[in-house]
Amino acid sequence: PIMKSLKNEFRRDSNRLEDQDKVIFFRIIWFFCQWARVSVSEGGMKSLRSSEDSSRSVVGHLVFTMDVFTFNLVLSATDYYFEHKKYAHLAQTVALYSEMVSLLHTMYSSADDTEKIMAMGLMDRLFYQTEPIDRLPKLLSRWAPGTYTREYICDLVEISYMTLKLLEANAKACLDLDKEDSKKARRKKRDEPMDAVARMKDFAASFDTTTYFSRKIVSNQVVLMFTQLFSLYDVNATHIND
Predict the structure, then answer these.
(1) Alpha-carbon torsion (234, 40, 72, 112), positive or negative
(2) Best exposed site among 18, 68, 175, 224 by fewest CB in 10 Å?
(3) What is the pTM of this model?
(4) Contact, 170 vs 123, CB < 8 A?
């Protein structure tokens, strides 16, 4: 696929790449992720879901962009564009990250075990490891009045919402699974080395979402950002929140 080929160019840091290629690459991924999300929400992908060529969910057509390399590429780009004051490029990158987090939630909620495990692996790298690559707290702290567009703030709000939704759902699922284990099984589990999936679930179960929210997300800056966003709308209708 052409997207895989393009991604490999960035992976190799090819000398054929030009300055604008990265943000164009981000825009292409953003477009197809958004197209798939909106189409599914409006029921436009039912025929695609039922076709023989698509036994997996629609996510399967986009999942090749959902790896640690792409997340690293996107998140490191947010640092670069902010430091170089390329706010239009930053807005496009954050818009893509919003779609990627939404797609990550779709993968996590999928009935396909492979997609779910892939989602847990990405979440492990984003949030649970000793040096997580999560940039949401930085993105929120960097917001300043009069610098960014309404769409940019909406993307930050959406990333915040989906991130907390993912963390809470995964922590609850892992805790519930742990409670189902008998004492004997837990003792056996402690004595044996954990596989990768079990380790990820163990980290997720011990992750304190409330502390993450209170220490890394909530601040006077974020309250001001939400206030500014509300002021840009005449009404707070349901369709706006959706």
Answers:
(1) positive
(2) 18
(3) 0.84
(4) yes
CB 98 within 8 A of CB 182: no
Burial, 10: exposed, middle or buried (Cβ in 10 Å; 0-12, 13-18, 19+)?
middle
- The helix/strand count (H/E) of the chain reads as 13, 0
With contact defined as beta carbons under 8 Å apart, do 55 and 115 qualify? no
Amino acid at position 134, single letter: D
pLDDT in tens, 153-165: 999 999 999 999 9
Long-range CB pairs of 71-76 (<8 Å, 24+ gap) are: 71/100, 71/122, 71/125, 71/126, 71/133, 72/133, 73/10, 73/22, 74/26, 74/100, 75/133, 75/134, 75/135
203-214 b/e with 16+ CB inside 10 Å = b?
bbbebebeebee
Q: Give 30-86 pLDDT, tens digit per residue.
A: 998 898 888 777 665 454 444 444 435 556 667 777 889 999 999 999 999 999 999
Instruction: Identify whether the C-beta of residue 3 lies closer than 8 Å to the C-beta of residue 65.
Output: yes
Residue 54 DSSP code: G
How many angstroms separate the CA atoms of 191 and 183, rounded? 12
Q: Which two tokens stand for residue 130?
A: 């000793």
CA atoms within 13 A on the CB side of 59: 23
